[in-house]
From TrEMBL, chain A:
Extent of the signal sequence: none
Protein name (Swiss-Prot/TrEMBL): Replication protein A 14 kDa subunit B-like
Compartments it resides in: Nucleus
Keywords of this entry: Nucleus
Location (main, coarse): nucleus
The keyword Methyltransferase appears for this protein: no
PANTHER family the record matches: REPLICATION PROTEIN A 14 KDA SUBUNIT A-RELATED
Keyword Nucleus belongs to the record: yes
Pfam family, one: Rep_fac-A_3
Family affiliation: Belongs to the replication factor A protein 3 family.
Organism: Hevea brasiliensis
Entry-linked SUPFAM superfamilies: Nucleic acid-binding proteins
Highest taxon of the lineage: Eukaryota
Automatic annotation (TrEMBL), chain B:
Limits of the Replication factor A C-terminal domain: 474-619
Keyword Kinase attributed: no
Subunit note: Heterotrimer of RPA1, RPA2 and RPA3 (canonical replication protein A complex).
Family per similarity comment: Belongs to the replication factor A protein 1 family.
Residue ranges of every copy of the Replication protein A OB domain listed in the record: 314-411
Name of this protein: Replication protein A subunit
Species assigned in the record: Hevea brasiliensis
InterPro entries referenced in this protein's UniProt entry, alphabetically: Euk_RPA1_DBD_C (IPR047192), NA-bd_OB-fold (IPR012340), Rep_factor-A_C (IPR013955), Rep_factor-A_N (IPR007199), REPA_OB_2 (IPR031657), Rfa1 (IPR004591), RFA1B/D_OB_1st (IPR003871)
UniProt xrefs under CDD domains: RPA1_DBD_A, RPA1_DBD_B, RPA1_DBD_C
GO molecular function: DNA binding; zinc ion binding
Amino acid sequence: MDTSKPAIFVNGGLLPMHVQKRVRIVIQVLGSDRGAVIGKSTDDHQLTVKGTPPSVPLTNFVEVIGIADSEKSIQAEIWTNFGDTFDTYSYNQLCQLANGEYQLLFL
Amino acid sequence: MGQWVSPDAIAALLSNPKPDSLTDIPEIIVQITKLEPKGKSYGFDANDGKMKIKAIFNSRLSSEIISGNIQNLGLIRILDYTVNEIPSKSENYLIITKCEVVSPALAMEIKDEKNEELGEKKEESGIILKPKQEHEIKGEVKKESSGILLKPKQEMVAKSAAQIVNEQHRNMAPTARMAMTRRVHPLVSLNPYQGNWTIKVRVTSKGNMRAYKNARGEGCVFNVELTDEDGTQIQATMFNEAARKFYDKFQLGKVYYISKGTLRVANKQFRTVQNDYEMTLNENSEVEEASNEAAFIPETKFNFVPIDQLGPCVNSTELVDVVGIVQSVSPTMSIRRKSNNEIVPKRDITIADETRKTVVVSLWNDLATDLGQELLDLADKSPVVAIKSLKVGDFQGVSLSTLGRSIVQINPDIPESKKLRCWYDSEGKETSMASVGSGLSPSTKSGGRSMYSDRVSISHMTSNPSLGGDKPAFFSIRAYISFIKPDQSMWYRACKACNKKVTEGVGGGYWCEGCQKNDAECSLRYIMVVKVSDASGEGWVSAFNEEAEKIIGCSADELDKLKSEEEGSSYQLKLKEATWNPHLFRVSVAQNEYNNEKRQRITVRAVAPVDFAAESRFLLEDISKMKGSQ
């Protein structure tokens, strides 16, 4: 497992804390607009994901890993389909834990 | 009243010291004086006004004296007696074998015919010091001899008003005495530091007599719940002698005056009523039925729990009430109690209610035999039964059990009963119903709630060899199948009808001992051990057919087919595919003896797939619990 480039678990609310840093986020795909994917974070923020999506069609929920280039957008390097259902509540809790007192456990 | 000592009674007794028959005895009434205990019996001087004779009561009559029926200075009619001579003292003594009480204590010893009758209020001679007889004494009685009222040599003793009143009334009839001298105290005012009280209470609950054995020996005990006029309640317990003495006396619904009990702080663990104190009565306690109070058995107040909500009550200390239609009644069973080897009767009934769930209620002792028989006789009419104070256990998921204090009413006249009757007659009869326990017992196939209760790590079980010593301990775990030995005997040949192991039949086929039949075919059923692992460690578990099918992903018959085809590579593949899958397991841990060694045996009771969303929430809660306890 490649641990040289750690990415921080974020949701819409936590993304602004990590601009210019490597993050990972699960979004619900809303649509695409001028080559970028528009998605909704698990805490209902609208975000833009730039980069080249994979050739396979995207499922409802997708995780992207990349550099946050603004408070509301990410330059994605890795795209992973997460399927049609996702427990957003648990993911938000995970983000809180990963950014709170236990963040060292995640990096 | 007109009752008096028989003239020359003593002389009559002496003249016929050993009467041949009871009809031989004329009417003999004597007064008891100087009553005192002599070992197990009571001795006294029998007085007929003229003469006295030393006497003793047969020890069988001691209880009459203890209870206060036979009193000092009272009158008794002698029904059967013997007079013996003590040669060394040339004295006679009278043994009373049978008598009846004619009068309770008179005011004083009868002397001559000039004495008072019962009921006169007389000043005790001790109070008034009159060395010489004076005619200031008022009263209806004329005194002639100086010995009657006055005791010149008696010293004056200062007495309080309470004592005087007490002594004046001491010789009156017991109930009147109690009501007059002893003010009835409200239950709420009792405390362990003031012993001089009388209470007037109704018995609102009566437990069974139980035998017990402890380090100090054996005994019997029962208790009653007492309620006074204010509604305050207290539990009273009686052991051994006192238990035997009062068990028949205390009747449900009747009112009693009680005094000379002891109080102590109630043991919260066994407390059944709201009172800081509990009472103990011993053989010296006084219990008197209040004759002018009608017996009133308070209407039983129920607080019914619908059958489908019994799950959360399992193993709680709180008792529950239920009401339902009786679906079946078992015959009486005899169960041997482990604690003292006593045999107790038990009967199981199944009841159902509008929640479309059923539950089994175990009736014990009298409820099993008497009431249970009543239910059996009524069974085909599907009666309504309401039961108060049941213990909720977890046998087969949910089970109810009666206690000494449980109350059972058949077809009670309460609104719930009518509702149930309506429901059952219109739809309930036809509905198929499930046992409330089946969703909650460890053998549930869906996993359900039990996969999240008693969750432990594998190392919690394997590192604790004493688990499951008494009775199996149940846990749930989330683990991966880490290894399935390909060359173990994974299945047994089973009877297609009853699933029991079959042996090879004479002349081919398979023989089932249970069904006593030979069958050309048999089925294969899994019985295997697999290794499971989680973050804490690993362990071996046993799995039977249903659970193993879920682990392997096919039936034993199918796997056998794979095994026997082309070098068995598809067999190996099947096992490989089953490995490193996560599952939720419900397991039981027990101790087996093997070559004189105790070994832990973990058995899979249920398998369920991991629900990752639910599991995540479970883990998040676990984390917050850990955070909270820091």
